[in-house]
Amino acid sequence: MTLQAWLMDDSNEDPRVPHRRNPNELVSLDQLAELGVLYWQLNPNNYENDLELTNIRETRGYNYMDLLDLCPEKVENYEEKLKNFYTEHIHNDEEIRYCLEGRGYFDVRDKHDRWIRILIKAGDLIILPAGIYHRFTLDPTNYVKLMRLFKGEPVWTAYNRPQEDNPSRKEYIKSLTQKFGVPLAAH
Questions:
Q1: With CB atoms counted within 10 Å of each terminal CB, which end of the chain scores lower, N or C?
Q2: pTM for this structure?
């Protein structure tokens, strides 16, 4: 099964529920790619020996990797951290996450500033471009195991919205008027 994405409703209820509009408005992988969001579906049971993952890492320069179990039992100040992840922000670098177990949601802003909700589950590798407004939360199961990939030393600095003068945000906005290059056969 491929990645699922849709435009979110405007409800303020629990962020861990799907928030689908009625009727549901799906977003395709091509629409996500136009925003610079890339996706691969891999085998999470073979991540240590996966040649496709190795190829992605080598081609894109991801030389650092760690694993994160995100759940109340394993993360100190879990609710506070989840609240921080769900605060709209950007990064100066790509955000690369490979879901090995569980489920969660990445929400990204489209060109019209609407939220697109992206469900990630085991096997989904997603790359968010630097400068895109986004946030993350879990689904009601409250568990996800993620592989985090970085170029060089891991840096995870969030810049909360508004960030219109941030160089990464300016570059991202500029790139929306051009076509994103995709160096690997994503999706």
A1: N
A2: 0.92
